[in-house]
Amino acid sequence: MSLKRVTQNYHLIALRSFLKYLNKRDIPVISPEKIELPKAESHSIKFLDHEQVDRLLKMPQISTTEGLRDKAILEVLFSTGLRVSELVSLNRDQVNLDRREFGVVGKGRRVRIVFLSEKAAEWLKRYLGTREDTLAPIFIRYSGKKPDADDQTGNSIRLTARSVQRAVEKYAAKAKLTIKITPHGLRHSFATDL
Questions:
Q1: What is the pLDDT of residues 74-131, one digit of tens each?
Q2: What residues contact residue 72 under an 8 Å CB cut-off, 6+ apart?
Q3: Sequence-ordered list of residues with C-beta below 8 angstroms from that of 100, at least 6 positions apart, any chain
Q4: Residue 130: Cβ-neighbour burial (10 angstroms; 0-12, 13-18, 19+)
Q5: pTM of the prediction?
């Protein structure tokens, strides 16, 4: 059985560490520097072209609340290039739909301003207009366990990053996309649309 290059590298790194350990104890062994690591495989990032993005964005069934939510999710992801963790942590009071902007705390706890396209803001307004609750999370789940009665924040029904990933995969399959797309891939598709 052959090992992936990344796994081979892990074994070689462990071997080099062991040789360094033996050197420190004055045990005669070959120099750890003589063991070279092969170059790691580069991972190509997959992204969609305009036609594929259009097909994907048309997949949610907007006649249902869940479909309308998913349409808003896809539009916001594509419009903003948000990470899924940033998307699912959004609360209503963070987003100014009139100015079409909001702030997010990203990697390294850095705050940045994110702008929505007109289309994404419109779908977000339509989705939020169907909501009869006043819970903080923008994106909530509609199936599974009911929200806790004492949960005034709505965090018990906040959509998870995994749920968004599954939704993107579902709509990508429905759109018969030839590449496997993830929310991260949508993030890169956003970058190609600038």
A1: 999 988 889 999 999 999 999 999 999 999 887 788 889 999 999 999 999 999 999 9
A2: 120, 123, 124, 126, 127, 139
A3: 115, 116, 117, 118, 120, 121
A4: exposed
A5: 0.71
